[in-house]
Amino acid sequence: MNKIFEAVEKHRGLILEAERHIWKTPETGYKEFKTSKYMAEKFEELGYSLTYADGITGFYTVIDTGKEGPEVLVLCELDSVICPEHKDADPETGAVHSCGHNAQCATMLGIAAALKEDGMLDGLSGKIMLCAVPAEELLEIEYRTKLKNEGKIKYFGGKSEFLHRGYFDGVDIAFMVHTSYSYSCPGGSVGCIAKRIIYKGKASHAGGSPWDGINALYAANCGINALNAIRETFKDHETIRVHPIITSGGAMVNAIPECAVLESYVRGKNYKAIVRENKKVNRALIGAALSLGANVEIIDTPGYAPNVNDKEMIDVARDAAKIVLGEDLNTSKSYSSGSTDMGDLSCIMPTVHPYCGGARGTAHGNDFEICDPEAACVTNAKWQLAMLRILLENEAERAKKILADFKPLFSSKEEFLSYQDSLASSGDRIVYGEDGTATVKLD
User: Fold this and answer.
1) Which three-class secondary structure string do you get for the chain?
2) What is the CATH number of the domain that holds 152?
3) Residue 417: inside a domain, yes or no?
4) Which of 41, 213, 223, 373 has the most CB atoms within 10 Å of its CB?
5) What tens digit of pLDDT does each residue of 23-52 get?
6) Global pTM value
C-alpha cells in the first residue's frame, strides 16, 4: 500500500486546490456546467480519454488493467444544494456545497492522478470506471420536470439517468464515499418518491369579491395540516419522512390565489412502505382540496430506491480503513434517513456508500464547511484506492466472491427501471360533477 500513499501524496496540491475551487463555484443538479468542465479539463490534463454524457453534465472514463476481471465503478457527485443563508452561497442562485460534494470531486481527481503513476495497476485484474455524475441532490423538481418533458432526461437523479442511458452497462460493482463528520458506514439509507403538488382554485378580487374565488393557497395549507395529522400513523421502523415546501403561493396580494405549488418527498426504508404511505399522503392532500372545492394535481415521480450496503462490500471498506486509518471502521445496521441515487445501483449490483470525515456544521445547513480537507480528500483518496486494490488484486478474487454471493433485489437493470416507472402517476385528482358530486382518484 506504500505505492498508494506515495501516489496520492504526490498530487496533494491538485487535490486541495480542486476542493477550494469547486467550493467557490457551486451549481445545482444538471446545471453543473463549470464544475463538470473543470473536472473534465483536469482529467484530460492527466491523460484520460473521456466519454461525456449526451446533452447533460457529467462524464466517465474506463481504465483497463489488461487482465480479465470485473469492472468496478467509483463515483463522485458534481452538484450542490441550495442554502441562501450560508455565508459562501452563490449570491444569485443560493447554491452552496453544504453537502460536501466539492470534497468528493477533489478526492476523485486524487484517485485519477494516483492511478496514472507507475506501478499503480500492477497486480490488479479487471477494469476501473471513474465517473463524475450530476444531480444527486433531489431538488428543483419543477426544473427537472421541465428537462424530462423536453426529453433531455428521463430520471431526476444523475446515477439513475446514467444507468438508464446504458453508461453503467459493463459495471459489476460500485462504491462511493460521501463527505461527512467521521469515517463510518451505516447499513443503508431510505428511498423516496418525489412529488409536485399543484392546488388549483379560482382567482377573484381579494377585497372586493373573495366569495367568488377558491383560495388555492388555503387549500395547500389544509393539505400540509392534513399531512401533519397523519404523521403519528407512520411506523417508526419504516423511517417514513414527508417534508413539503411551498414553492408558489399566489401572484399578488389583492387577488385570491388560483394556484399554489408544493414540492415534497415520501421517504421510507423499503418500497412496500413507501408505496403504502404515499397513497395515504395523497389521500390527505386530495381531501384538503375537496374540503374547499379546489382541485389538486399530484405528479408522483420515482425518486431513489432504498440504498442497501452490501455486507461483503462493507467488509472491504472496513479492511481498507484498517490499512489507511489504522483503526476499525465505525459500522452499524441502522439506516440513514437521507436518500441517495446510489440506492438505484444497489438494487442490481453490490455497492457500498460509506462516509469519510473532514466536515463540520449541519448537513445542507448554513454552517456546513470542510474543516479538515486532509481527512475529506487526501486520506479519502487513499482509502478508496485501498478498496480498489482489495477488490481487484489476486486476480480480483475478492470482487469475484462478492459477485458470486450477491442476491440482487431486481434481476436486471430493465426490471428495476420498469418497476421505478410503475411508481409514476400524474393528473388532477378530483372530477366535480354538475350535480354536486365529486369523484376522487387516489392512484
Assistant:
1) CHHHHHHHHHCHHHHHHHHHHHHCCCCCCCCCHHHHHHHHHHHHHCCCCCEECCCCCCEEEEEECCCCCCEEEEEEECCCEECCCCCCCCCCCCEECCCCHHHHHHHHHHHHHHHCCCCCCCCECCEEEEEEECCCCCCCHHHHHHHHHCCCCCCCCHHHHHHHHCCCCCCCEEECCEECCCCEECCEECEEEEEEEEEECECCECCCCHHHCECHHHHHHHHHHHHHHCHHHCCHHHCCEECCEEEECCCCCCECCCEEEEEEEEEECCHHHHHHHHHHHHHHHHHHHHHHCCEEEEEEEECCCCEECCHHHHHHHHHHHHHHCCCCCEECCCEECCCCCHHHHHCCCCEECCEECCEECCCCCCCCEECCHHHHHHHHHHHHHHHHHHHHHHHHHHHHHHHHHCCCCCCCHHHHHHHHHHCCECCECEEECCCCCEEECCC
2) 3.40.630.10
3) no
4) 223
5) 999 999 999 999 999 999 999 999 999 999
6) 0.93
